[in-house]
Automatic annotation (TrEMBL):
<protein>
    <recommendedName>
        <fullName>Xanthine-guanine phosphoribosyltransferase</fullName>
        <ecNumber>2.4.2.22</ecNumber>
    </recommendedName>
</protein>
<dbReference type="GO" id="GO:0000310">
    <property type="term" value="F:xanthine phosphoribosyltransferase activity"/>
</dbReference>
<dbReference type="InterPro" id="IPR029057">
    <property type="entry name" value="PRTase-like"/>
</dbReference>
<dbReference type="InterPro" id="IPR000836">
    <property type="entry name" value="PRTase_dom"/>
</dbReference>
<keyword id="KW-0472">Membrane</keyword>
<feature type="binding site">
    <location>
        <begin position="96"/>
        <end position="100"/>
    </location>
    <ligand>
        <name>GMP</name>
    </ligand>
</feature>
<feature type="domain" description="Phosphoribosyltransferase">
    <location>
        <begin position="12"/>
        <end position="149"/>
    </location>
</feature>
<keyword id="KW-0808">Transferase</keyword>
<dbReference type="Pfam" id="PF00156">
    <property type="entry name" value="Pribosyltran"/>
</dbReference>
<feature type="binding site">
    <location>
        <position position="139"/>
    </location>
    <ligand>
        <name>xanthine</name>
    </ligand>
</feature>
<comment type="similarity">
    <text>Belongs to the purine/pyrimidine phosphoribosyltransferase family. XGPT subfamily.</text>
</comment>
<keyword id="KW-0460">Magnesium</keyword>
<comment type="subunit">
    <text>Homotetramer.</text>
</comment>
<comment type="pathway">
    <text>Purine metabolism; XMP biosynthesis via salvage pathway; XMP from xanthine: step 1/1.</text>
</comment>
<feature type="binding site">
    <location>
        <begin position="41"/>
        <end position="42"/>
    </location>
    <ligand>
        <name>5-phospho-alpha-D-ribose 1-diphosphate</name>
    </ligand>
</feature>
<feature type="binding site">
    <location>
        <position position="96"/>
    </location>
    <ligand>
        <name>xanthine</name>
    </ligand>
</feature>
<keyword id="KW-0660">Purine salvage</keyword>
Length: 164
């Protein structure tokens, strides 16, 4: 939903670790799980953290791609898994429109689907999540960002001042 994103929600490695652990605490009551299906690529890091916390060693992947930077395109399923998902935990970083989530739910209807972050349109698709952000927010993950110089406020303002 990029073209209408009006604000950014930057997530640091520390915050992502903390939020993924909070998700693991919630999921501890819903298990035990046979294994995790991570939705690549965004689900890989949260899946690792949750697998570590819940002592899960079996991790498979469903590979889906639908966004080019902030622009949504057709979802393309590059790799699937078999079965109906009974006893399995699906992990993704977030649900936005819910399109990716609906695809994985159709593939594995009996699995438990969890994400770290959720936007309102995707929320009904997930069983468990930690933090909700508004639909017009773009979540910036640590793997998509790098620190850079920021101008002091006074200089930034001076640069914008129109001298009569
Ligand atoms: O609810 P939706 O509107 O479908 O959006 C959510 C999906 O979009 C992102 O994946 P993306 O397609 O960008 O691929 P990536 O995980 O490889 O970054 C994100 O990781 C979710 O999987
Ligand atoms: N990084 C990132 N990827 C997305 N894919 C769909 N929505 C988002 C978002 O808010 N942030
Ligand atoms: Mg993804």
């Amino acid at each position: 939903m990029s073209e209408t994103s009006r604000r950014y929600y930057p997530v640091s490695w520390e915050q992502l670790h903390r939020d993924a652990k909070a998700l693991a605490w919630r999921l501890a009551e819903s298990g035990p799980f046979k294994g995790i299906v991570a939705i690549t690529r965004g689900g890989l890091v949260p899946a690792h953290i949750i697998a570590r916390e819940l002592d899960i060693r079996v991790i498979d992947t469903i590979c889906i791609s639908s966004y080019d930077e902030e622009t949504q395109g057709d979802a393309s399923v590059l790799k699937s898994v078999g079965g109906d998902g009974t006893g399995w935990l699906i992990i993704d970083d977030l649900v936005d429109t819910g399109k990716t989530g609906r695809i994985v739910r159709e593939m594995l209807p009996k699995a438990h689907f969890a994400t770290v972050y959720a936007k309102p349109a995707g929320r009904p698709v997930v069983d468990t999540f930690v933090t909700e952000v508004s639909q017009d927010t773009w979540i910036l993950f640590p793997w998509d960002t790098e620190p850079q110089y920021a101008k002091p406020i006074a200089k930034a303002r001076a640069g914008e001042t129109v001298v009569p």
